[in-house]
Amino acid sequence: MPGDQRIIVAHDLTGRSTDALQRGARLARTLGARLVIVHAVDDGLPARLSETVSSLARDELERLAAPLRAELGEGRVDALLLHGSPWRMVVEAANAPDCRLLVIGPHRWRGLGELFAGSFAERILRAAQRDVLLARLPAVDDHGRVLVGIDFSPASRRALLSAAELAPGAEIILVSAYHVLFRGIIARGHDPGEDPALEAEKRRLEREIGSQMDDFLADMPERLRGARRIIAEGGPAALLSCLAEYEEADLIAVGAHARGRLAELLLGSTARDLADFAPCDLLVAR
Q: Where is the UspA domain (predicted)?
């Protein structure tokens, strides 16, 4: 039931997490879910310092939660202080069965006593078993235009359905990228932009992908079956990033292909590249 779901926002208690918290609050209202603001204090701190930091962190969490309780309703917003490795504690909280979504900022988490070797966001994306939203843009409004990367895998299906639920009023644009195999051979040494054989092969691939898209969407809601489609040559991450700027999209959604224990070691290259370079919010669906 939607009211039993939780949206968890990982907050580092600085302004860098403002957009994530604003977006989490908007989505909690959209889904009718509970909002949980989570901060983790490094458990490697000396005891007296840990007590001081924990007290300050608890006060700050309550300060952040207070206006949201007034907005979303008393009992709909929780502040949760954890102790341990920050990214592991956040993942542990997000992997609870009632968590619908984890919202994080794109910054590196620089908790006292621990400096992450690498991106906090990438570690979360590798290890979380729930959908993760990487919030980059100010949440001044609900998401209005969403690009969904479609490669016809179960992961991209999950991304599409999740994006549709999280952005019920948004325009959905389906994006499929492809590569022309043996491009140089097909072009026969001519200018690829003018070679008839190459253009014919691209048209063939686009027809084939269009037919696959029809099958992929056959059992989807009408809103998704009728969504605009973009089929273009290029790498998926680069294509989605360029289109996000051109289409003025505020959300990109992709699936995470690695699952289970493997996901802790690997993150699909498209999701990983977008986590670094996407010009808008990014949803990685599990």
A: 5-136, 145-286
